[in-house]
Amino acid sequence: MGQCVTKCKNPTSSLGSKSGDKESSSKSHHKKNSGTCGGGGHKEESSSKAPSELSNGTKAVDVALETPVALAVIRDPRKEEHAADRDGLSLLRIEQLFCCYKDEQDDAILEEGMERFCNDLCVNPAEFRVLIIAWKFQAATMCKFTRKEFVEGCKAIQADSLDGICSRFPCMLLEARGEESFKDLYRFTFQFGLDAEEGQRSLQRDIAIALWRLVFTQDTPTILERWLDFLAENPSGVRGISRDTWNMFLNFTQAIGPDLSNYSEDEAWPSLFDTFVEWEMERRKKEEEAQRARDEGEDGWRCTETKSSPGTDRLETTEGSRGSQTWGGH
Question: Under a CB-based contact definition with an 8 Å cutoff, are residues 98 and 167 in contact?
């Protein structure tokens, strides 16, 4: 990754640019006044030059007026490079890192810059670690980091370089396993998935499915895949996922067991959950009937399949059959 380097012109290059004209005028004035003074006039010229001119011909009054401006603009880049906040982070390095990926027209990192940022971090833009970064940066929109989000996010995770961000991944992943932290991450994910510019208030079904699978990467509830299958197979009945449904699903995974036996429609669950439980129980019933039919078919097949016992004239059923059959014969 190339480093972004900023350059500034030396503001002192224009100081005293007209000093040569002023000097000639001053000397001409002194010669006219000293023409009849002889040596005394020369001494007077020398004494008057000392306080009014510097060795380079620039008048002292010019320096007095322009020097404060120069001092206000000139900075020591070495000191600025190492300028750090109270936590020891280099704010300049954070800003430079942001500039490496920011859009040319917008003061933000957009989709193209985000891809390069993820590539330099050696992460897939669609993986859980990127969601973790977005959460820590408190990003308001997918595929976008504003300057403020990026700078404040780097300060929050205590990193001012790519290596620094990478080194924080283990801690951030561990933090996301905490109950309260995960609840915060989970709620953030819903807001993150909305299109703020379009004023969305609910998640599109396909986006919600992808985000549910993503946010539960580290700790996947047993019922999750059944829930996602239900949403995928009922596109007409699920137009979007509201914030209430999203938040309550986390409570659902924690309060209701995988067998759904303790689910009650009398409790204040969203109506979509009632539909899901009915759908899931019916699916399980059909699956059990199909399995029972398969088992009975296998048992019947075992009862009719026979094999010959070596060295005898007796035929017997295979192991595990319900009974045995023998045919006499000499």
Answer: no
| CA-wise closest residue to 186 among 221, 225, 161, 154 | 221
10 Å CB burial of residue 19 (0-12, 13-18, 19+) is middle
Q: What is the CATH number of the domain that holds 164?
A: 1.10.238.10
Q: Which domain holds residue 264?
A: 192-279
Q: What is the tens place of the pLDDT at every residue in 166-217?
A: 999 999 999 999 999 999 999 999 999 998 778 889 999 999 999 999 999 9
Same domain? For 137 and 215 the reply is no
The count of other CB atoms within 10 Å of the CB of residue 95 is: 17
* Residue 14, H or E segment: none
pLDDT band at 34 (very low <50, low <70, confident <90, very high): very low
- Do 168 and 176 touch, CB atoms closer than 8 A? no
Highest mean pLDDT among 30-44, 204-218, 295-309: 204-218
Q: Judge whether 71 lies within some domain.
A: no
> Which is it for strands 145-146 and 108-109: parallel, antiparallel or unpaired?
antiparallel
